[in-house]
UniProtKB/TrEMBL annotation:
Residues reported to bind ATP: 275-282
Protein name (Swiss-Prot/TrEMBL): DNA 3'-5' helicase
Domain UvrD-like helicase ATP-binding span(s) in chain numbering: 254-527
Alphabetical UniProt keywords: ATP-binding, Helicase, Hydrolase, Isomerase, Nucleotide-binding
PANTHER family listed in its UniProt record: DNA 3'-5' HELICASE, UVRD / RECB / PCRA DNA HELICASE FAMILY MEMBER
Basic and acidic residues bias (residue ranges): 555-570
A Pfam family: UvrD-helicase
Amino acid sequence: MPRLALSEDFFTDFVSLQRPVQKEVTDAIQMFRSMTVPQLHASKGMHLEKLERARDRRIRTIRITKFYRGVLLAPDDGSELFMLLRVAPHDDAINWACKRAYSVNGATAGVEVRNVDALEQMETYFEAKAVTTPARLFEAHSDTVLRDLGIDDQVLRLARVCVTADDLTVMAPPMMPADQYEVLWFLAQGESPEDVWEQLIAPRGQTVRTAADRPVVTLAEAILNTPNRMVEVTGPGELERILTEDLVRWRIFLHPAQRRYAYHPGFNGPAQVTGGPGTGKTVVALHRVRHLLRTGREGDRILLTTFTNAMAAALRDSLALLLGEADAHLLERVDVTTVDSLAARVIREARGSSPKPLSAAAEKSAWTRAMAREELPWTDRFLSQEFRNVVLAQGLRTPEEYLRCVRRGRGTQVGRVQRARLWRVMERFTADLASRDSATYTQLCDQAARLLAESGPRYRHVVVDEAQDLHPAQWRVLRACVAPQSDDIFLVGDPHQRIYDSRVSLGSLGVNVRGRTTRLRLNYRSTEEILRWSASLLDGQPVGRLGEDDEDADDGGRDSLRGYRSELHGRVPSARGHGSQDEELRALVDQIRTWIDQDGVKPSEIAVCARFNTLVDAVIARLRRERIPAVAVKDDPGPEVSGVRVATMHAMKGLEFRCVAVVGLTSSVLPFAPQVTPADVDPVQHRSDLLAEHCLLFVACTRARDALAISWNGERSRLLDPVAG
Ligand SMILES: Nc1ncnc2c1ncn2[C@@H]1O[C@H](COP(=O)(O)OP(=O)(O)OP(=O)(O)O)[C@@H](O)[C@H]1O
């Protein structure tokens, strides 16, 4: 019987087909799998045909309907493993098939595809273009070095005529073979061949460093080596399962860098995945939970946390989707919740009830009350930050501890006498809240962490999404939830998306990820145009590494978006200023109409975001007046609710939309002065507050998949200087 593997491109085609055609495709695949190879060749209905003009002599087509053809790669290695590459209308299928060639990567031993015709044209073009430029992009690397990293003859010739990284990006996949492109891209970003080997080749299981010494890999072996782009249909019922349950691609095809951590057999302690927006960190966290569930013992419980209740609900749905029917029963062993909700639950369980969490406005009033009887030199904001970022961050209990502590992350000196006064105000603040049976969220976490430390761990594994915004008190809750052991904590996050004031040294909280950390670089969400544009908003910003609140590190402890890229392409984002808010909203209405009417985007796939709720409300009112359905994200509209989604920039965290408009980016709201501590009051806090404003804009813009439009009225925010200067 022939075996069959389905490629990622086939999935893309299949999803876009009408249901009756999908049924015909499924029937054709079933028929294919029920025949012997000789029967297949003889079958008139199947019409397995070799294409004379095909660049790859193993390419075949099969008949699906009168109009549709399947494109296959037939085995020539003695195996019976066929690959279904595409399903498309007759002419498109033939045209596509004739130009492709499949090969086995010499280093990763995975299957790759290239557009031979297009690459040959590139070769001619770049050869001529490079004649006048002696300096070449990869001149520091010898042919042997490149070959050892899997670069083959054709790609080597192309690499040798690249002058800039932009030359390389012109040939990005699907033109160039994906694994080879990734190697060249990493080198072009300044990574050493050793690092490329460590990050891209070794994790694929390759142990032989030199190309000449490697054994030949057959096509069938290579197909099985490429789980990021191919899946073999095995066993009865498997096809139905893949084509019904698994149509969401992230469920099957993981990038090797994602798979390496998601399905790691066992980390000897906490492990961490970082990466820019849209690199699939949440996807990795979900797969990790699946792996831990499948390999764990019956009674082992898992805690999966994220930042907001809405995100927790979405994460629970995604996990159920990933587990599918077969593993649905495993869901019972997982709690998906925010750390704050967990903290409240822990307190309730221990004491029968939990204090009411305090809103930001109520907290402000409570600080004002605490200061009322004295003439003090501090603002409520200063006190709130001192309490949160020093006292609760370090879990200080007594005035003596506070007097002795190093006030990390604070840029002002506070002497002994002042500390004693500050402590008294903070005591009044906590006593006042206690008398009202109320507490800040961070206080709740501080209390819960202590209770958990006494009662002992309650989970076997903790998996953390959006780790960048957690406060040390929240980390203490998580640390106390699980005993220090293998695979105890798995965290994913992006320091470039830190929009709340939480600086953390994970090591000092007992979450040491050294040697168990990786960075994802391929963005699956946005186009390269949106990515580059958004990344430039953070140019030169001092983004610290995740969980390393270490201003004294040699390199400043900085993270970077180096090597961050997307394989999708589209329009460059637009940035427009307007004379008034009315004019800006009128332009917004036009933009949304264009997206809906001309680009065929559903209203629910469009988001508009603004810094504050007042503008959010104004946008909703205006859109409705113009008969464009609009709903507020804070009202939690389900997927079945139509209408443009409108939200504050903070509420955009973790979401994604085909089109995003960020409006009202005016100098008075970004940076928002009341949110930014003046530099002369506290220079360290000033830098941190300002960075959070930059990150907020970055988060909002990187929610867009295909299109991004930003606008302002009156004076433009200076945070837009890098893109709108
Ligand atoms: N291996 C994959 N194949 C296909 N799509 C993927 C893959 N990994 C992630 N995606 C898709 O990319 C998008 C972003 O993924 P995800 O939300 O996990 O990224 P993230 O890094 O957590 O993003 P952010 O930090 O911006 O919230 C989602 O639409 C997801 O389905």
